[in-house]
Amino acid sequence: LSNDTITRSFMVSFCSGSYTIALTGGDYHSFGEAIDTLNVVGIEGPVTFNVSPGTYTEQVVLNNIPGSSATNNISFIGTGDNVLLTAAPSQNENYVMLLDSTSNVTLSRFRIEARPPSGNFANALVLQKGGNIALDSMTVRVRGSINNANASAVVLLGNISNLSLTNSTIDSGY
C-alpha cells in the first residue's frame, strides 16, 4: 500500500450557556482562550462570559462566529472598573480588541485600555464590519502621553450597523 493515511473530520459546536473568565480558576484564564474557542467552533445558543476582576494583558480578535444571531448572542460581562483588558499595541497590530465582521455581541461593565509603550499607534477597540454590537457601562480609552491622530479609543471600519452605546465612556486620553 502506498497510502496508509486515515483522515477523519468532525465539527464540534460550542455549548450555549454561561462561562467564567478568571485569571485563576474559572472555565477560561483569559479573554483570548474564550475567544479562540468561539472563533474555532462557534455557538449553538446564547453564550455569556462572566469576567472576574483582574488585569488581562492581551490583544484579542473576535471574528464572525458561526451560530451567532439576534437570539444566539455573545456577551462579555465584567464586574466594573476592576476588570481591565489592556495591551501595548504596535503599528501593525494597533488594537487591544478587534471585532472583525462580528455581529450580535455585547460588551458590558469592564474597561478596555490601549497603553502604547512608545509611538502613536494605539487603538483600544476596533470594529471592522458587523452589527448588533452593544457597549453597556464600558470605559474604552487610550492611555499614555501620545498626541497623534493614529490613536483612538474606538475605530469604526467598514459598515457597522446597530451599534449601541449605553452608560459608557469613550476617551482618547490626550
Explain what you see.
- This protein has 174 residues and is mainly beta.
- It is 6% helix and 46% strand.
- It contains 1 helix and 12 strands, in the order βαβββββββββββ.
- Strands 1, 2, 4, 5, 7, 9 and 11 form a 7-stranded parallel sheet that branches.
- α1 (31-41) links the parallel β1 and β2.
Note the topology:
Blueprint: E1 17-21, H1 31-41, E2 47-51, E3 54-57, E4 60-62, E5 74-77, E6 83-87, E7 97-108, E8 111-114, E9 122-136, E10 139-142, E11 151-166, E12 169-171
Parallel strand pairs: 1-2, 2-5, 3-6, 4-7, 5-7, 6-8, 7-9, 8-10, 9-11, 10-12
Question: Can you give me a brief rundown of this structure?
Answer:
This protein has one helix at 31-41, and strands at residues 17-21, 47-51, 54-57, 60-62, 74-77, 83-87, 97-108, 111-114, 122-136, 139-142, 151-166, 169-171.
What summary fits the major beta sheet? 7 strands, parallel
Helix and strand sequence: EHEEEEEEEEEEE
Tell me the helix content. under 10%
SS summary, helix count: 1
What multimeric state do the chains show?
single chain
Total number of β-strand segments?
A: 12
Approximate strand percentage: over 45%
Average pLDDT figure: 88
Parts with pLDDT < 50 across at least 5 consecutive residues: none
Query: How far is the first residue's CA from the last residue's CA?
Result: 68 Å
Shape: globular
The radius of gyration computed from the alpha-carbon positions, rounded to a whole number of angstroms, is 17 Å
Task: Briefly note the structural class of the backbone.
Answer: mainly beta
